[in-house]
């Protein structure tokens, strides 16, 4: 009699893993040692054994160390090629070799570090324009973790505090890389108690959606706007569509914000949400 | 020509301060030195110069020190009488003198300390039954700060953590004193990053309402269910009426909770909300 072996079943489903490109917004501190679910999903969606992966470590002040770790991981997984675009000056983005790399790769990975540094180096360069367009058109899988996640929206959280009521001074905003412009992303979310700062950010841009991503957790956005949660934590969606308020303190004020009728979803592994419909799937 | 003196105007409005009894749920660390808005409101709603105030310091392990401070404050404000019901053993609640005090007072103030200690001393005693009934019937103003606020609901947050996704192990629940049974109260709310623990609590009792109160802030509940915010911080209302979820971890599990469609209001000074209608006013 045929006995199903759970081990081979699990291998079977791993082989059937979807390989469609996606934009993967990772909350930082993703598992790099054990199951590596998120990094493996990035590898698979970048083409698996056919993947040509570009690592951009420019958010980090130790790009060799930070980027090198991801190079090893994706090489070990069996990617066809993995190269590091070690951009330390804006001028380097004009290098034809790196331009070609971004045109020909199947996956791009933005490491953690400082989101302001990453934006200062990449914003308004032809290189990031290519990456953005190819990711938005579903030609490549683009992943960003921590600072690499923060830059996904048009409006970006550059820094902020916790331990206070939502208020205008609790969050510093800057301009991101507009990969998924309609989002304001925060990372290390529950781990660093960032709910109030994300609420403060969302209050200023009520047409946008706040997305708070925990460590070792990924909000994976597919073509068409479907978002799926991977990893061990949660993705918090703050939807201010119905928001009203009774005060509107000036920018920089520490006065607490009145924010009525926020809709909040705490999404776990496997939960799905549609960014354009603003509805659970 | 008649000149209005702002000073006398302000005195005038102070004299017209509403004096209806209310239940005042205070998030801890209320201003005891400067404007003392919250404590002054308690004094006024307890009857002002006609007030007979009972302080119950039993949550505190230093009841004389903790309670004594409030005695001085309300004596300084000009209350007709202020006495401390320094209950350190359950048996003391049967003392006819203290029974009579709770029957005849116009205001009761529960200090901070440890909510489990307060409940252990007072739960199911005739003394707290008298206080609860009189407060619910609008005969007295009952205020509780910090631990004295935590005990207001039937289900009480006894302790918990922060820095994690909402999960069953993040909050320890116990039975409160059921002053406003439909609430789960948390205090020092944004100050101690307690959003995730209140969400975790509310997820277990989806027919209740979560109320998170910041320091120096008060959710004042009037007869009929109207809630008004006083003080310098915010009152966060977590309304799970429309909540759905895709998982239901067992009690004590650290697995993150999936919580969809929570409605959240961050209310500031002067904002009003109706507890029974679950609507902003």
From TrEMBL, chains A, B:
Q: Which residues form the active site?
A: 146, 188, 215
Keywords noted in UniProt: Hydrolase, Protease, Serine protease
| InterPro entries xref list | Class_I_gatase-like, Peptidase_S51, Peptidase_S51_cyanophycinase
Q: What is its EC number?
A: 3.4.15.6
Cross-referenced SUPFAM superfamilies, in alphabetical order?
Class I glutamine amidotransferase-like
The organism's place on the tree of life at top rank: Bacteria
Q: Which reaction does it catalyse?
A: [L-4-(L-arginin-2-N-yl)aspartate](n) + H2O = [L-4-(L-arginin-2-N-yl)aspartate](n-1) + L-4-(L-arginin-2-N-yl)aspartate
A Pfam family (short name) is Peptidase_S51
The Gene Ontology terms for molecular function here are:
peptidyl-dipeptidase activity; serine-type peptidase activity
Q: Name one GO biological process term.
A: proteolysis
Which family does the entry's similarity section mention?
A: Belongs to the peptidase S51 family.
Q: Which NCBIfam families match?
A: cyanophycinase
The job of this chain, per UniProt, is described as:
Exopeptidase that catalyzes the hydrolytic cleavage of multi-L-arginyl-poly-L-aspartic acid (cyanophycin; a water-insoluble reserve polymer) into aspartate-arginine dipeptides.
Query: What is this protein's name?
Result: Cyanophycinase
Q: Report the source organism.
A: Prochlorothrix hollandica PCC 9006 = CALU 1027
């Amino acid at each position: 009699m045929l006995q199903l072996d759970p081990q081979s079943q699990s291998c079977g489903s791993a082989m059937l893993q979807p390989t469609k490109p996606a934009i993967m917004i990772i909350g930082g501190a993703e598992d790099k040692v054990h199951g590596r679910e998120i990094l493996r999903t990035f590898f698979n969606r970048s083409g698996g054994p056919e993947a040509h992966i570009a690592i951009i470590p420019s958010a980090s002040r130790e790009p060799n160390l930070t980027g090198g770790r991801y190079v090893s991981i994706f090489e070990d997984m069996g990617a066809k090629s993995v190269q590091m675009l070690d951009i330390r000056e804006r001028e380097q983005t004009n290098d034809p070799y790196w331009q070609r790399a971004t045109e020909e790769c199947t996956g791009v990975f933005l490491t953690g570090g400082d989101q302001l540094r990453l934006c200062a180096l990449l914003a308004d360069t032809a290189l990031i324009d290519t990456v953005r367009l190819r990711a938005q058109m579903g030609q490549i899988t683009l992943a960003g973790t921590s600072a690499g996640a923060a830059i996904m929206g048009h409006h970006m959280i550059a820094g902020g505090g916790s331990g206070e009521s939502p208020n205008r001074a609790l969050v510093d905003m800057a301009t991101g890389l507009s990969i998924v412009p309609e989002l304001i992303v925060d990372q290390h979310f529950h781990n660093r108690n960032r709910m109030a700062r994300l609420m403060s950010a969302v209050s200023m841009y009520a047409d946008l959606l706040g997305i708070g991503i925990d460590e070792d957790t990924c909000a994976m956005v597919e073509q068409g706007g479907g978002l799926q949660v991977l990893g061990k934590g949660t993705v918090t969606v703050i939807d201010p569509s119905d928001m009203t308020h009774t005060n509107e303190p000036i920018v920089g004020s520490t006065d607490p914000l009145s924010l009525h009728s926020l809709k909040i979803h705490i999404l776990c592994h496997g939960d799905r949400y549609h960014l354009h419909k603003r509805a659970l799937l």
